[in-house]
Amino acid sequence: MNGKNILVVDDEEHIIELIKFNLEKNGFSVLTSDNGEESIELVKNNDVDLIVLDLMLPGIDGIEVCKRIRRMDDYDKTPIIMLTAMGEETDRILGLELGADDYMTKPFSIRELVARIKAVLRRSEEKQTVRAIKLVVKDLMIDTEKHEVRIKDQPIELTLKEFELVRILAENRGKVLSRNLLLDEVWGYDYFGETRTVDVHIRHLRKKIGDDQSGEYIETIRGVGYKMK
């Protein structure tokens, strides 16, 4: 992973310095910004492989930065790890719904952050080599080669995690997949988050495929997990 470019966005200088020092020690190239506006310009003008993004920023906050980055053609699937304060649970969930891949709560372990960055990058690279196959469930079509999802031939915009969830559910149609299994498969065995992360992404996925009211595709198995009907 040497040579990967990481953008670190935080308005606390000592945190930027700490993260930058440790990432460079691990062979990464690091760009830094202390505000939302500048971070967006850095993304536009540089090849960025992963973004460490603080939610509380002056001017444009981290949620808005995440929204804008996800609207960029070349960065709609670029991994984002959010940094949040202890009391920002609502913003954290919103960030995950917008497509952030992981989050860490301040204060955090720098070793754990570096480990998560490596894990997220590794999973991102592995998913880029996924075999070419089309999965069809009723009117839902999943093309893993093109990384596309369509319903009645209409394209549906999904985040990377939402795509991986619907792919795994479709590949295991009729089987009940536990939240812990989905965490392992989509976020990786070394993910440090909680199973509610799965619930947040499933809820957002359902809305996008029009399943939140009809329940036509994904069934919740209370106390266990989910299955594709």
Automatic annotation (TrEMBL):
One Pfam family hit: Trans_reg_C
A single GO molecular function term of this UniProt record: transcription cis-regulatory region binding
Domain named Response regulatory: residues: 5-121
DNA-binding region: 132-229
Residues modified as 4-aspartylphosphate: 54
DNA-binding recorded as keyword: yes
Classification via SMART domains: REC, Trans_reg_C
Any one of the GO BP annotations: regulation of DNA-templated transcription
Domain OmpR/PhoB-type: 132-229
Cellular component aspect of the GO annotation: cytosol; protein-DNA complex
Keyword annotations from UniProtKB, A to Z: DNA-binding, Phosphoprotein, Transcription, Transcription regulation, Two-component regulatory system
CDD domains: REC_OmpR_BsPhoP-like, trans_reg_C
Organism domain of life: Bacteria
Entry function: May play the central regulatory role in sporulation. It may be an element of the effector pathway responsible for the activation of sporulation genes in response to nutritional stress. Spo0A may act in concert with spo0H (a sigma factor) to control the expression of some genes that are critical to the sporulation process.
Record-given protein name: Stage 0 sporulation protein A homolog
Species the sequence originates in: Alkaliphilus metalliredigens (strain QYMF)
